[in-house]
């Protein structure tokens, strides 16, 4: 059906946009010039071991079902759900919102962005843009986009497993990421933690402007 093609193109556009943002800011930060091998080594050094299990355990089935939805949708009828068109189009809107948040988060970081858990000598503590509201807006952006894929595809497996994948990565990575930032920025980061929530902008909703 023509309408399914629209949703599939929106799905592709969402992830093409995310990849383009990541690649652009990796180039801006110079991580490609420093070498893929060095960053792979950093990734294995700092990443928590559970992530080496979580990513393939949830990621591989997710990608398989996505590919089947694109090329053999009848084979995954068991996880398709009859969503109304307005809800699927709503998923496109929320996915686009997540993509904008991802872009703004990368833009705020600029050259401070790194795809791996690491800090460097010239790194700055960024508290502007989305980082003024929450400490980890990129994780929120990915959660929004992955939840949106379930609506766009009308597939509960794609939505739920995608959210579980990002949520589990978020829960494991945040403590390690913040430990590195505390070591790097000391009292400045401790103060930032006190005035800024991690992922849920509760203070912002309450009008707390500290």
What is the CATH topology assignment?
A: Four Helix Bundle (Hemerythrin (Met), subunit A)
- Classify the beta-strand content into a percent band: under 5%
Structural class: mainly alpha
Biggest sheet architecture: none
What is the helical fraction, as a range of percent?
over 70%
Secondary structure tally, helices? 9
Instruction: Give the CATH level 1 class.
Output: Mainly Alpha
DSSP E strands, number = 0
CATH architecture field: Up-down Bundle
Shape: elongated
Overall mean pLDDT? 87
- Low-pLDDT segments: 35-44, 203-210
Count of the domains: 1
The first-to-last residue Cα distance is 52 Å
What this model shows, in words?
The protein has a single domain, classed as Four Helix Bundle (Hemerythrin (Met), subunit A), CATH 1.20.120. It has nine helices and no strands. It is elongated and about 55 Å long. The C terminus is likely disordered. It is mainly α. Helix 4 runs antiparallel to helix 7.
